[in-house]
Amino acid sequence: MPVGSLDSHAYFLRVQGADDKTVQAIAEGKLDDAEITPAERALLEYVTKVTEAAYRTTAEDVQVLRDHGWSEPQIAEAVYITAMFAFFNRVADAFGISPQGYLEMNTLTK
């Protein structure tokens, strides 16, 4: 993932209340080190699959999310947000937009 994407994703994680350790663990793909619930982990694993190969997602994948307590609207929102971030990343990459320094500007959570 391009550095600018990590910067903005990390910023939004922090805005949602994630601490630095969790942000770093997620950025490095080390979910075992992230302070997240089993339900959050299941959702992150699902949206990773959507990001990398959406065509490989199955009804069983969605059922795992339901089994963790996610509702249909929450699952749909996760897919929409994942797709929207993918779109933004590709546009930013195509135009060579550099990192915007979101983490340095993060005054919302401090």
Summarize this structure briefly.
This protein is mainly α. The chain has helices at residues 3-15, 20-27, 38-53, 59-67, 72-94, 102-105. The protein is globular.
Walkthrough of the structure:
Helix 1 runs antiparallel to helix 2 (20-27). The chain has helices at 3-15, 20-27, 38-53, 59-67, 72-94, 102-105. The chain is 66% helix and 0% strand. The mean pLDDT is 85. It starts with a helix and ends in a 5-residue tail after the last helix. With 110 residues, it is an all-alpha fold.
Tell me about the largest β-sheet.
none
Summed over residues and divided by their number, the pLDDT gives a mean of 85
Query: What letter string, H or E per element, gives the SSE order?
Result: HHHHHH
Measured between the Cα atoms of the first and last residue, the distance is 26 Å
Question: Segments where pLDDT lies below 50 for 5+ residues?
Answer: none
Oligomer: single chain
**Rg (CA only):** 15 Å
Percent of residues in beta strands?
Answer: under 5%
Total of helices? 6
Q: Look at the helices and sheets and give the structural class.
A: mainly alpha
Globally, the shape reads: globular
Helix fraction? 55-70%
Number of strands: 0
Helices and strands in order, then pairings?
Elements lengths: L2 H13 L4 H8 L10 H16 L5 H9 L4 H23 L7 H4 L5
Helix pairs in contact: 1-2, 3-4, 3-5
Brief descriptors of the model:
110 residues; mainly alpha
